[in-house]
Amino acid sequence: MAVTELCFPRQRQVLFLFVFWGVSLAGSGFGRYSVMEEAERGSFVVNLAKDLGLADGELAARGTRVVSDDNKQYLLLDSQTGNLLTNEKLDREKLCGSTEPCILYFQILMDDPFQIYRAELRVRDINDHSPVFQEKETVLKISENTAEGAAFRLERAQDPDGGLNSIQNYTISSNSFFRIKISGSDEGMIYPELVLDKALDREEQGELSLTLTALDGGSPPRSGTSTVHIVVLDVNDNAPQFTQALYETQAPENSPVGSLIVKVSAEDVDAGVNGEVAYSFFDASENIRSTFQINPISGEIFLRELLDYESVNSYKLNIQALDGGGLSARCRVLVEVLDINDNPPELIMSSFSNHIAENSPETALAVFKIKDRDSGENGKMVCYIQENVPFLLKPSVENFYILMTEGALDRESRAEYNITITVTDLGTPRLKTEHNLTVWVSDVNDNAPAFTQT
């Protein structure tokens, strides 16, 4: 069988080819399993032997093991009973954040013959978090001539739980002027809006203090509260206006702390205090507030901590411009994080046998997987071993490789081999990882005694 090679001097280069050489990718679909988050270590997931239709003891006999995509051992296989168990308590929010459903991908590897089963574990959410408002008190300055029916969007509460356990409703304390309206976004979240039902009169009542409550959909539901303090103002008839509704910018992930990301600008034609504009984040998560900071006077947005493309590759920032009379405008800033080649390739060894009998035919010695957390060209990899050794690498599926002998070995010619597996990415600059293996050739009785003279 022909193997495509890259022309690098004195190095055998093997491209990513999905080549099957005595290896099978079992099944055409995924094995789908689930477990509740926070389940105790050792919780039962599935009996793999029954699920795969294997005989008793076959999992142990074939050296079955479970390999996770991110090289973390979330699951533990009891090869004697065939039970797949949790190896630790799983926190859905730490593993997947707001992503729902929360899926962990893994592979089941078996020998004799070598097979790979692809599978996924869904971590199901429980209602273990209450809604929390970033600000315990919000001050709204509303002009006394505001028309009935006007709506004021309030900052939503944060709840890391997913599905029905996330925030489902908002309420406001009883009052004569305002009610709550629930609005949805194109991102699937709901926001509270304060709607004016009765005209305000500053001379009659200059301030109101209301309690905003966020409720999730758990059973029983959890809640969180924030105070909405309303200050009724005299007339300010012009709100600030941003020069752009949307700002788009890019920032390399190695940008130093303090770097200027973008500058937003809003104008207000009113005079005096009513024309002075202050900038701030609006409805920003804790992650955005810890990553960026904004100058309230100039509108310049700076980097507050280092970016990491592999963790977050883009940010959406809502910016508010508030004038001295309490009127506001909002714009959005999209920050795209640019990847740099800052992660070397990884080699994850699944199995390795360091002894082989001489005169054995082609034999698999090691099975391993390679991965690179970078993206694009930075994440593409080349895997090879040195020349002048009687071994070769055969690519399999899912970035797995098999180290095999090219043919029979002769212990009397050479009893020990040192093999270096090199994984190089295609980024700039190129990063590489090397893994050294030692293989011993064991003796068989293949030579008869011979006299020195006939």
Automatic annotation (TrEMBL):
Keyword check for Cell division: no
Domain Cadherin: 34-133, 134-242, 243-347, 348-451
GO cellular component: plasma membrane
Topology versus the membrane: Single-pass type I membrane protein
Compartments (UniProt record): Membrane
The keyword tRNA processing belongs to this UniProt entry's keyword annotation: no
GO biological processes: homophilic cell adhesion via plasma membrane adhesion molecules; nervous system development
GO MF, one example: calcium ion binding
Xref: SUPFAM superfamilies: Cadherin-like (SSF49313)
Gene3D superfamilies: Cadherins (2.60.40.60)
Keywords tagged on the record: Calcium, Cell adhesion, Glycoprotein, Membrane, Repeat, Signal, Transmembrane, Transmembrane helix
Entry-linked Pfam families: Cadherin, Cadherin_2
Protein name (Swiss-Prot/TrEMBL): Protocadherin beta-10
Organism encoding this protein: Sapajus apella
